[in-house]
TrEMBL record:
It catalyses: AMP + ATP = 2 ADP. This is Adenylate kinase. It is an enzyme of class 2 (transferase). The keyword Kinase applies. Pathway: Purine metabolism; AMP biosynthesis via salvage pathway; AMP from ADP: step 1/1. Monomer. Transmembrane segments: none annotated. Keywords: ATP-binding, Cytoplasm, Kinase, Nucleotide biosynthesis, Nucleotide-binding, Transferase. Consists of three domains, a large central CORE domain and two small peripheral domains, NMPbind and LID, which undergo movements during catalysis. The LID domain closes over the site of phosphoryl transfer upon ATP binding. Assembling and dissambling the active center during each catalytic cycle provides an effective means to prevent ATP hydrolysis. ATP binds at residues 11-16, 128, 173. GO terms for molecular function: AMP kinase activity. InterPro entries: Adenylat/UMP-CMP_kin, Adenylat_kinase_CS, P-loop_NTPase.
Amino acid sequence: MTRMLIIGPPGSGKGTQAERISERLGVVAISTGDIFRANVKGETPLGLEAKKYMDNGDFVPDSVTNKMVRDRLGETDVENGFLLDGYPRTTAQVDYLDEILADGDEKLDVVLQLTADDEELVHRLLGRAKETGRSDDNEAVIRHRLDLYHQQTEAVVAKYAERGILTRVDGIGPIDEVTNRVMQAIKAAQAA
Ligand code: AMP
């Protein structure tokens, strides 16, 4: 049973690594970005609301995001653990997640941060934009998403570091090599 978070700037490969961790640990990976994108595609009311923010690289408001996460974490497939990817991104979301977990008498085991420098990330994201045509992958929006990460999400990382459950992994390098580092870091954190 593992309950964990993966945090990283846009382009750090957290979605890819999240899928691999999920397979290896047998826990369900939940990506708030993926849930939003599925809703945008399906043109649901949630998707129509989220799209306004996502296209500009802004955070979807907490009033929408928090409830979505609470509902998702209430489903039965998370009983054996979960890996949250892309949430929490603000300290207010950390507080909200604390409440959800406390309500279920649960706690986080590991928070994994993937690191990479900004210029490498911009380069990767511009490459991804060509491949996937994601509407939030153009340079101005990419830089804005990185700024938000530095302004807001680094404070989230600091909170978990204070709690002693943060482990950092260098996200630069071949995907398999990063996965090896990630799995080793999780093992070490769980043994600590
Ligand atoms: P991601 O795929 O994790 O990069 O997320 C894509 C977009 O979804 C972000 O740029 C935000 O617009 C939105 N999003 C995902 N997770 C959150 C969150 N925890 N809080 C607010 N907005 C989010």
